[in-house]
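Input record (one chain):
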Amino acid sequence: MPRRRVEPLPASDAGPGLDVSTVGAIVAADYHGEADLIAVLRRAQAEYGHLPEPVVREIARLTGIVESRVFSAITFYAFLAERRQGKFIVRLCRTISCDLQGKDRVARRLENELGIGFGETTGDGMFTLEWTNCLGMCDQGPALLVNDRVLTRVYAESVPGIIAECRHVAAAPARRSEGGASRVTTSVPSATTFSTVEAEAGLKAALSLPRSHITAVLSTSGLKGRGGAGFPTGTKWDFAVAQQSDEKYIVCNADEGEPGTFKDRVILSESADLVFEGMTIAARAIGAREGVVYLRGEYAYLRPHLEAVLAHRRRHGLLGTNVLGVDGFDFDVSVRMGAGAYVCGEETALLESLEGRRGTPRKRPPFPPVSGLWKKPTIIDNVETLAWVACILARGAEWFASIGTEPSRGPKLFSVSGDCAAPGVYEFSLGITVFALLDQVGGAGARAVQVGGASGVCVPASEFGRRLAFEDLPAGGSVIVFGPERDVLAVVCNFLEFFADESCGKCVPCRIGTKRMYEIVKRITSGEAEMADIDRLERLAAVVKRTSFCGLGQTAPNPVLSTLTHFRHEYEERIVKE
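The corresponding structure, as predicted from the sequence alone:
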């Protein structure tokens, strides 16, 4: 959609006491069509500290997007706000891995130091204190997000120094600042395949093949999507190849919001070139000219690094016109930011967000390879999947297929957090047992593990002989270890609170059902329930799983159902007997 040429309103016409003249400059610089709405809103919020009605009206007028749709986007995304916020927005992660590492003590110290509760702003307008869901720092929590700056291993004793640092930055004669660099480490206890693959070997191999052979290589390798769904990558790409369209897209799903999952963050930090190489191979295979990385808002600190890698690739002929000298092979990649919405990890919700709307899932079919971004054929792959594509083309399908099990080929990266001696990102062959994994990460004595993040399943110690593979325990990349003293019901409560908060609200089973499940488990943990509540919870979980519109609601009951299967006695013990 072309940008309309509209003159900015005079400041006096925009609203009492608010000069919106800067909005015109923001729109002129950042808006080229509907896809840029979220970027414009983020920029305007950074300028004004929030998105008041006069600013929203001016954005709507200058872009030609109806006001109701602009307001709709603002109310959907967690990082956009109509209400004035402080100069420093302090968000504390409340999801499970940070919870296990003592986030409650950090929360109390923040409240005491700032003199406000969560959801409030200090009287001087300096600080806003909020909860946030997973920051992707599960291996180094508790974690804080201060504006776009990530702080890890934050303990109660750290809080006064963080607040003092922000005040010092605010007193300096400079524009709005994040107060320093993010403090994030990349805990990879042992070398991964990604660090050993020759640069651009995969892309060069792909360019030496007939385009139709590229997807055949992936099919022979047995690569399945590493984001959790496990759909065969070669088959997915074949669907897009078959579409007759002069406009196709490659989308990298970097909206890694599943509690307990952080492998994609590490890949983007350490091996971004490999991901972009995989995207370029995909573009060659299906005939795409444009690629997009959808980067979650919580990872904004990674964007300068990714942009620098992309600029380097353009300078060296790896992106742009005639990639690596191949006449007619034009492909480039842009980075688009999310704004705080877990559901945008669902591929069709991601597409809605990329098109500048609320991230609510679409009805399928059609699937994205047939009708995706702007209703054009679109390949959407996870960060890790795209990196493996480059490795497979570099080393050969037979190499990849020789690793793992028959239905689950290849190596896999796992995000390991919780009660273990060495949390971090590990590479294991698919088919590894839970026992073997725990032995590698220092998780001896665990009473259970959560496989697949909050939406996965809880596996008791009696089943640690099971395998992490698509035919047994599909991992999606996350393993959270629970030590012998952990309260299983408290874990379930944390997961359900997350799902209730992150539901997009599109369908009743998820919107209402997640809240009701949370309320029932909360009653049980507080000793206020009756035995019939356990049966009600089980029936409700089954209904939500069966009738929800998208994967969020369909998997939200998993922690309830799996713990009822293996730890039902712990539910029953909380019921006060008459």
